Amino acid sequence: MESTNDLTTYTSPNSTDVAHWYRAARATDFPENGGACVKYGDKQIAVFNFSRRAEWYACQNLCPHKMQMVLARGIIGTTAGEAKVACPFHKKTFSLHTGQCLNAEEESITVYPVKVVDGFVYIGFTA
Amino acid sequence: MKHVILVGNGMTSFKLCEKLRKLSGDIRITVYGEEIRPAYDRVHLSEYFAGKTADDLLMAPRGWYHEQGITLHTGELVTEIDRTNKTIRTHHGITDHYDYLVLATGSGAFVPPLDGVALDGVFVYRTIEDLNQIIEYGQRCRTAAVLGGGLLGLEAAKALVDLNLEAHVVEFAPRLMPRQLDEAGATILAHKLTQIGITIHTGKATKRIAGEDRITGLEFADGTALPVEMLVISAGIRPRDEVAKACGLAVHARGGIQVDDYLRTTDEHIFAIGEAAIHNNMIYGLVAPGYDMADVVARQLTGDLSKKFMGFDMSTKLKLLGVDVGSFGDPFGETPGSIPIAFQDRCNGVYKRINISADRKHLLGGILVGDASQYNIFHQMVVNKIPLPAQPETLIIGVPGKEDEGAGVKSLPDTAQICSCENITKGDLICQIKDKGARTIDDLKKTTKACTGCGGCTPLVNDVLKMTLESLGVVVKKTLCEHFAFTRQDLYDIIKVEGIRTYDALLDKHGIGDGCEICKPAVASLLASIWNEVIAEQATIQDTNDRFLANIQRGGTYSVVPRIAGGEITPKKLMAIGRIAEKYNLYTKITGGQRIDMFGAQVHELPLIWEELIQEGFESGHAYGKSLRTIKSCVGSTWCRFGVQDSVSFAVFIENRYKGLRAPHKFKGAVSGCIRECAEAQSKDFGIIATEKGWNLYVCGNGGARPQHAKLLVTDVDTDTCVRLIDRFLMYYIKTADPLTRTATWLNKMEGGLEHLRQVVVEDSLGIGAMLEKEMKELMANYECEWKKVVETPALRAQYRHFVNDDASDDTLSFVDLRGQKMPADWNRK
């Protein structure tokens, strides 16, 4: 229970060193242009269906600002073409490409590679 | 290394140290101060009585001098200057050699040659030591007087009030502050001071101070007397020029060390600054000119001869015992041909006078008493010769509804001096904001030191900050965001005219990019305001509260608020809430809007809770939306012996009429059954107060961070008229306000203000009344309880789960006990 609220639990893998593609849910289970939370063991992963751009993103569900498990409920959008998510609590925004906080000096969030195969969403993990 | 000795350690001397060190590390600086403390803030001396300590008042702690490599001797009075050998000697016998000497000896209190000035209980008001003596002696007294009704004398009077003494002010001139105020201004000031218990005696020539060993009273030339137990003399200042005089420097007959435009005395190696210096027959008893002098000398000592001391404007603004007083430029209109315009309001104790030039083009000076909020801008208009508006009287009587604080500062040139203590111009501030990234007043204080002297420029600095940030697009963007180059009002019209029903359609047709957390909720709100369709159909453009139709709380759980219109609820429904809250283990609390909030529901529980609430006859309370919250009511004529109308029935009716109505921001109403106003209607976006003849309607009030009373729109209207006017008022607000703007702010920004609003809503001056009413009817016809819709629609209901791939609930939630209920554990530590 404690471990999931610990930032060190999350590390961003490069899509090249993904050891395991986890089949999360059907693509249709995710709202269009929005997100939902995936449980992966003890981890909570926010997955976003950016249907307007035909893109998928995943990141930790934990917002590093106030350590709240809420990013999946955030509004997604873009700034200068870069996809981002806004935490519903205090509107801290994070790049969905790099995980960097875009409007404050918060720690970066972990982002994960996502792929959709045969209508299923897969998230890439190193282990 | 060049050795500079400063004689005296007051504010000006301190400023010279600071400026010298800023310009050069290559000068040896030694300071001799007579007082036992390092320099302190004499301007705010009276705060010593209000609880500030001597340390609070220090310009800088002793350690600062050490850090800056400045040798500071305190308690050392320089008694001799040997100009031939360039040495000084103190009363303790220390001698020191200088290359340059700066006399910043300041001034002492002027004590008139009266019998009895040496009696016990007679003090001057100058140093912290003086204050300590006044405080000690004052404990044995009940009454005290100040001799001198000038600026400093009134400061001293404040000190006496702070000591809980019965305070008198005795002034020789026929009015208070004769150097700053005219008769009318002084009268208003005197009246205000009288109200707070100070007795004013003007036109009184003091003949002698009576008493054997200690003072017992004052005797005046007109034969009258004033018995008092203590006297504080504040009859002016006398420059400390003894040591200068003794070494043969030229001094003025009235006192003051003669200096030229470079602040040089008759010895080119000796300067004099501050109140000790006399320049062009003027002694400057204010801090800002002293600082300017320090700047001129600091520059010269580091080789910059470009700046001269050109005299100084004696404009001043202060707060005396809570009364604002300002006097600027030519306050008395002594400029030939000048025309005075004055506004006098004895009721509120406000006096404003401006003197304009004969050609009516420029402001020459003026006086402000009771409300000096315009001091800075007026002062700048004088200094920078800003052209006057066509009707200069509007400067002091104002145009109704025009309260744009930032507008004034826009007209100032970049060279306009904003902070006179530190000589910071508007351009300096803009440069800090634009190029150096300053974003707050604190940033500007740190980098420029503006506002750190007298603090009087703070409002103006704030205006410059606001204006510049706006120009950078940091604070107020008229366009919604990078995705829509339109205002909210533009988008309202586009959506309505083109019949657009979804965010994506609007973005495709009129936007760029892929949206963001600013435009999505704003457009969601517009769509809801225009079509009033169930917002859950477009869940992902909603802010999180609207997305889950509940209020997100710490920890990520939600709170649930069913509608309890007018605060009226049956015992049965109360029990239903209790039962449901208990079942789901929810923390319950009564809200400020007379309903019940249930906290701690997890996402997946929301539809379950609502299913039960709906079965019990409840509807959504829209506590999560930018929409109508509640209509608060008092019990009114049905039960209350004072009530004149049935306020509860009206509140229930109104709340049900506007429930679910989405607006640029949340809005609240209230209905009070009589003039006692128990429902606090005047703090609401619209408030209704019963009269014998009908209802009074107030609009545009709010509580919150900047509370504002609602303003009276109409009186004694019947129920139908009242409802019709509220329909129009709300629709007009919904159509024209910026996003996230409450009605109060909307009105504050409105051209023409309340009068314009009344014209539109009551008089129908735009001819849109019928349309507004029709639009409101359409919205109301479309109302549907959105929670009922969600509970009954499986696809919508399916969104309410924490994990998309697991039925588990969020196991990171944790709660602790709070007085027998639960609350979320602290914000998780990092």
Which fold name is given in CATH as the topology of chain A?
A: Rieske Iron-sulfur Protein
* Overall average pLDDT of chain B: 89
Radius of gyration of chain B from the CA trace?
Answer: 34 Å
Strand line-up across the major sheet of chain B: 3-2-1-7-19
Low-confidence stretches of chain B: 400-407
Sketch the major β-sheet of chain B: 5 strands, parallel
Count of individual domains of chain B: 7
Tell me the distance between the termini of chain A.
20 Å
Helix content of chain A: under 10%
Largest sheet, spatial ordering of strands of chain A: 2-3-4-10
Give the SSE map.
The complex is a heterodimer of chains A (127) and B (830).
Chain A: E1 20-26, E2 34-40, E3 43-50, E4 55-60, E5 62-63, E6 68-69, E7 75-79, E8 82-86, E9 93-95, E10 111-112, E11 114-117, E12 120-125
Antiparallel strand pairs in A: 1-12, 2-3, 3-4, 4-10, 5-6, 7-8, 8-9, 11-12
Chain B: E1 2-7, H1 11-23, E2 27-32, H2 54-57, H3 62-67, E3 70-73, E4 78-82, E5 87-90, E6 95-97, E7 100-103, E8 107-109, E9 122-124, H4 128-138, E10 143-147, H5 151-162, E11 166-170, H6 183-195, E12 199-201, E13 206-211, E14 215-220, E15 225-227, E16 231-233, E17 237-239, H7 242-246, E18 257-259, E19 270-272, E20 277-279, H8 287-301, E21 316-320, E22 323-329, E23 339-345, E24 350-356, E25 363-369, H9 375-383, H10 394-397, H11 407-410, E26 417-419, E27 424-425, H12 426-434, H13 441-448, H14 458-472, H15 488-498, H16 503-510, H17 519-531, H18 544-547, E28 551-552, E29 558-560, H19 571-583, E30 587-590, E31 596-601, H20 606-615, E32 628-633, H21 647-658, E33 667-672, E34 686-690, E35 695-699, E36 711-717, H22 719-736, H23 743-749, H24 753-761, H25 769-781, H26 786-792, H27 794-797, E37 815-818, E38 821-824
Parallel strand pairs in B: 1-2, 1-7, 2-3, 7-19, 9-16, 10-11, 10-16, 11-12, 18-20, 32-33, 33-34
Antiparallel strand pairs in B: 4-5, 5-6, 8-17, 13-14, 14-15, 21-22, 22-25, 23-24, 24-25, 26-27, 28-29, 29-31, 30-31, 34-35, 35-36, 37-38
Helix pairs in contact in B: 1-8, 12-14, 15-17, 20-26, 22-25
